[in-house]
C-alpha cells in the first residue's frame, strides 16, 4: 500500500501543506500514521478524501460543510461536479487522478472520452491529461507511488491521440501545397506522447505528416527525408542523446537534410547551445501549436517567390 508524505499530498492535490495541516487539526479530515521519528504518513484513502474535498472547496463550498459529508457523499458530490456541462478543470483532474490511483481503467476511459467530446482532443489532453500525468510522475519519482498509475494514464492518452488522428482525413500528397512535417524520435528514445500530440495537432490543421515513431536511426531519418522532402524535421528529446551531444545531433540532421528546418522539442532541446542556424527549440506544446501558422507563412512566402 502506498504511503504519502504531506509534500506528496500537496503535489498531488494542489492544496498547500499548511492548509492540509489546518484541515487535519481542525476538522480531523485525514488520519495519518506516524513513523518512529514522529513523521506523518498518509494512505491512499487520505489522498482520495483530500482530492474530493479539494474539488468541492474549489467550487466554492465551505470546508466546514464539506467535512460533514460521509466518504460516499463526498465522492458522489465531487463526481457530480466533474459531470457538469462546464466543469472546472480541477474537478476533472482530481476525478481522473482518483481513477488512476484505483487503476480503474473503465472510469478513466469514460472521463477522458467525456472531456474529449466536450473540449476536443488538444484541450482535453493539455488541460487535463498532462496535469494528471505530471502529478503522478512527481509522486512516482519521489517513491510514494508505483509506476503502474502513470503508465496507465500515459497509455490511455496515447490511445486517444492515435484514435483522434486516425479519424482525420489524409490529404493527397501529390496535390497538396501544405507544409510537410517528418516526425520521429531518435535512436534509443521511446517517449512518444508529445510526438503523438504534435502528429494530431498538425493533421488537424491540414498539414502533411509522415509519422515514423520512436527509436529511429539517423540514417533512416535521412533516407525518409530524401523521399518525403519535409519542410520540417521534428523530434522530441527526452532521454537521448546526452545533453552534450544535442548540438552535434542537430548539426548532423541539418547537414544531411539542408532543405528542412530542424525542430527540437523537450527538456534536452531547450537546454542545448551551439545549435545550427535555423534550428528551432521548444519545450511547451502550446508554443508548438503557435509555430504551425508561422511555418505555413514561410512556405507560402517561398511559393510566391518561386
UniProtKB/TrEMBL annotation:
<dbReference type="GO" id="GO:0003700">
    <property type="term" value="F:DNA-binding transcription factor activity"/>
</dbReference>
<protein>
    <submittedName>
        <fullName>MerR family transcriptional regulator</fullName>
    </submittedName>
</protein>
<dbReference type="InterPro" id="IPR000551">
    <property type="entry name" value="MerR-type_HTH_dom"/>
</dbReference>
<dbReference type="GO" id="GO:0046872">
    <property type="term" value="F:metal ion binding"/>
</dbReference>
<dbReference type="InterPro" id="IPR047057">
    <property type="entry name" value="MerR_fam"/>
</dbReference>
<dbReference type="InterPro" id="IPR009061">
    <property type="entry name" value="DNA-bd_dom_put_sf"/>
</dbReference>
<dbReference type="GO" id="GO:0031419">
    <property type="term" value="F:cobalamin binding"/>
</dbReference>
<dbReference type="Pfam" id="PF02607">
    <property type="entry name" value="B12-binding_2"/>
</dbReference>
<keyword id="KW-0804">Transcription</keyword>
<keyword id="KW-0805">Transcription regulation</keyword>
<feature type="domain" description="HTH merR-type">
    <location>
        <begin position="3"/>
        <end position="51"/>
    </location>
</feature>
<dbReference type="Pfam" id="PF13411">
    <property type="entry name" value="MerR_1"/>
</dbReference>
<dbReference type="InterPro" id="IPR036594">
    <property type="entry name" value="Meth_synthase_dom"/>
</dbReference>
<dbReference type="InterPro" id="IPR003759">
    <property type="entry name" value="Cbl-bd_cap"/>
</dbReference>
<keyword id="KW-0678">Repressor</keyword>
<dbReference type="InterPro" id="IPR036724">
    <property type="entry name" value="Cobalamin-bd_sf"/>
</dbReference>
<feature type="domain" description="B12-binding">
    <location>
        <begin position="178"/>
        <end position="306"/>
    </location>
</feature>
<keyword id="KW-0238">DNA-binding</keyword>
<dbReference type="InterPro" id="IPR006158">
    <property type="entry name" value="Cobalamin-bd"/>
</dbReference>
<dbReference type="GO" id="GO:0003677">
    <property type="term" value="F:DNA binding"/>
</dbReference>
Amino acid at each position: 500500500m502506498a504511503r504519502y508524505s504531506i509534500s506528496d499530498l500537496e503535489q498531488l492535490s494542489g492544496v498547500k501543506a499548511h492548509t492540509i495541516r489546518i484541515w487535519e487539526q481542525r476538522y480531523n479530515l485525514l488520519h495519518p500514521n506516524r513513523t518512529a521519528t514522529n513523521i506523518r504518513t498518509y494512505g491512499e484513502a487520505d489522498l482520495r478524501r483530500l482530492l474530493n474535498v479539494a474539488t468541492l472547496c474549489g467550487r466554492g463550498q465551505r470546508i466546514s460543510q464539506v467535512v460533514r459529508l460521509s466518504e460516499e457523499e463526498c465522492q458522489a458530490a465531487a463526481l457530480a461536479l466533474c459531470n457538469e456541462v462546464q466543469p472546472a478543470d480541477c474537478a476533472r483532474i482530481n476525478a481522473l487522478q482518483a481513477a488512476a490511483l484505483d487503476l480503474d481503467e473503465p472510469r478513466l476511459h469514460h472521463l477522458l472520452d467525456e472531456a474529449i467530446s466536450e473540449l476536443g482532443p488538444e484541450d482535453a489532453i493539455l488541460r487535463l491529461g498532462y496535469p494528471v500525468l505530471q502529478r503522478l510522475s512527481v509522486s512516482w519519482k519521489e517513491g510514494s507511488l508505483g509506476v503502474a498509475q502513470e503508465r496507465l494514464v500515459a497509455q490511455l492518452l496515447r490511445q486517444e491521440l492515435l484514435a483522434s488522428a486516425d479519424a482525420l482525413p489524409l490529404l493527397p500528397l501529390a496535390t497538396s501545397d501544405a507544409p510537410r512535417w517528418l516526425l520521429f524520435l531518435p535512436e534509443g528514445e521511446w517517449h512518444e506522447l508529445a510526438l503523438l500530440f504534435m502528429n494530431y495537432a498538425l493533421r488537424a490543421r491540414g498539414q502533411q505528416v509522415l509519422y515514423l515513431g520512436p527509436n529511429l536511426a539517423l540514417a533512416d531519418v535521412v533516407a525518409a527525408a530524401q523521399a518525403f522532402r519535409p519542410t520540417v524535421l521534428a523530434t522530441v528529446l527526452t532521454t537521448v542523446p546526452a545533453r552534450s551531444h544535442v548540438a552535434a545531433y542537430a548539426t548532423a540532421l541539418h547537414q544531411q537534410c539542408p532543405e528542412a528546418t530542424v525542430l527540437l522539442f523537450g527538456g534536452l532541446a531547450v537546454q542545448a547551445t551551439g545549435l545550427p542556424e535555423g534550428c528551432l527549440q521548444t519545450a511547451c506544446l502550446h508554443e508548438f501549436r503557435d509555430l504551425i501558422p508561422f511555418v505555413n507563412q514561410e512556405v507560402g512566402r517561398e511559393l510566391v517567390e518561386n
